[in-house]
Amino acid sequence: MAKVTVQGERWFPSEISFSKEIQEVWGDWYCDSEVGKLRAVLMRRPGEEIEQVTQLNYSTFRWKSPMNTDKAREQHDLLTNIYRAHGVQVNYVETQRTDRPNALFVRDQVLMTPEGAIVCRNGISARRGEERFAAAALAKLGVPIIKTINGDGWFDGACAMWVDRETVILGTGARANRSGAAQVESELRNIGVKHIVHFEIPYGHAHLDGLINFADRKTAAIFPWQVPYEVVKFLLERDFTIIEATNLDEIKINACINFVALEPGKVVMPSGCPEMKHKLEEAGVAVIEADMSEILNGWGAMHCMTAFLKRDPIY
């Protein structure tokens, strides 16, 4: 009988990077900008949770007033129809806590990256717990979750904005503390981000997307009196055109900076902002308007409602 030589176990790991196998293993998910062609989003159609907001408790949820629920849903549907008309796959957080009316603002729960989602942890107690259901929706879709904010950190997704694959603006303030921002920065650097532009969000503001946004590869809109000099200087040094929103009613009441780029140079923005619309168009940006008047009672608009899951790379 031939002698059998038993060799030890030989395990050799695959050395393919996560980014090169994400499509095969997880699916086609990617985001490295605010303007690349929009392909897929995660949203929450206002559910029964918004019916809990009344004239007696609306301030508890940081709203300006209760919403007309039917009208709010109509406006949400209007936006999703615009997305679909531009080839965007709209996915929903289908289940949510009935005591979390802010859950329609999904951007705050998810920060998408080129390698998967960072699940956030909201800065205010009235929103804690929403992230669990956003995470469940991501898992159902097959979107990899590369980080969940934990420990003593808190961070809303709207406190970060992609400039390009190597550059992210990272805000701190009432909705993102330094621990939360440091966790986000660590994960971003782990996946190849080289430049972090720090932005201290002023008192009285929640997120970056009421203060700064991007409409094209090299076009940024800002609330000029509230954006730090160093942030604007950084963009100007990289040949960005800066559009200054100066109509305070448009900025604070109608959320004129809270738009979403459908592709480079084309945005959908809240209606009722003629000055900002004109400035964007003068800069060569095509504008679609959508009525967000009822949604704005929750101090948010389309950018707040939309977590990007897939954008085409812009470079």
From TrEMBL:
Q: What is the lineage of its organism?
A: Bacteria, Bacillati, Bacillota, Bacilli, Bacillales
- Which molecular-function annotations from GO does this UniProt entry contain? arginine deiminase activity; transferase activity
- Could you tell me which Gene3D superfamilies the record lists for this protein? L-arginine/glycine Amidinotransferase, Chain A (3.75.10.10)
Q: Name one Pfam family in it.
A: DDAH_eukar
Q: Name one GO biological process term.
A: L-arginine deiminase pathway
Q: Under which name does UniProt file this protein?
A: Amidinotransferase
> Which keywords label this protein?
Transferase
SUPFAM superfamilies, alphabetically?
Pentein
Q: Which source organism does the UniProt entry give?
A: Peribacillus saganii
Indicate the segments annotated as coiled coil, or none if absent: none
